[in-house]
Amino acid sequence: MTIVIPRLTLGIIADPQYADLDPNPRLNRHFRQSLLKLREAVAHFNAQALDAVVVLGDLIDRDWENLAPVLDILETLHAPRILLPGNHDFLVDPDRLTEVHAALGMPAPYHEVRINGLRLLVTDGNEISLFAPPIGDARRAEAEQRLAAMRADNAPNANDWNAGVSDAQAGWIAERLSAAEAAGEPVILLGHYPIHPSSDHALWGAEDLTDLITASPAAIAYLCGHDHRGNWAERDGVHFVNFCGMVDTEHDNAFAVLSVFADRIEIVGLGREPSRQLAFTSSKFVRTGHF
Description:
single chain, 291 residues, alpha/beta, Purple Acid Phosphatase, chain A, domain 2, six-stranded mixed β-sheet, 7 helices, 12 strands, 25% helix
């Protein structure tokens, strides 16, 4: 029997949202339980041959002191870590806002990671927001203007707990997708906010970013959290996977192992996270020759 080895294997966690807080029964969020769930996920990941473990934001629910217990558990991972913040990770004292990315070990708020001939684009969905930029930063004023315009249009995602990317970041994403296409390297994009399909949790400007990504022959997937219910959709050969929030429910965990093969992405879900087999459309890859 031939054993097919995946090109890339990632552990995936979304929205642990730990805090030393009592549960929120209305949202079914059990903040203290997330440390136990994280330890369970790390033990599972450490028994696998992983290229990296990705945490798709909202490591904490609020307050800087809650970050250390989460990072201490993640430090026990055997695989490299790729961490990115969500909106809740900026619910800290204002003088800590500029320290969030460094605390997560990020070289920059948005950047590229290359593994085994694939590119992971770590995007910064919090860039234009009412919570992540320092007080007085021009990006907060831009966020106010964007949100007001969206509310005037009755946009479903016109919520102050969502956010958007700058024109500069969108340009960077376009440039990195073009570079990957020229190099014949597939791209997986990582973000906190869903962008497709439309929802009340979607990134501001999600439609434009979705158009940009699906126009690229190099893009194969966009992975996110934020909407704890989870979701999946496919458009123009790109798979958009929204992973379930770990913090939800008292006892049920939610995490996954994602593997990229020549013809598909396999997701083995644990707990509330469903398993998925996501085939690549032949036209996309015959045309580009990525695999």
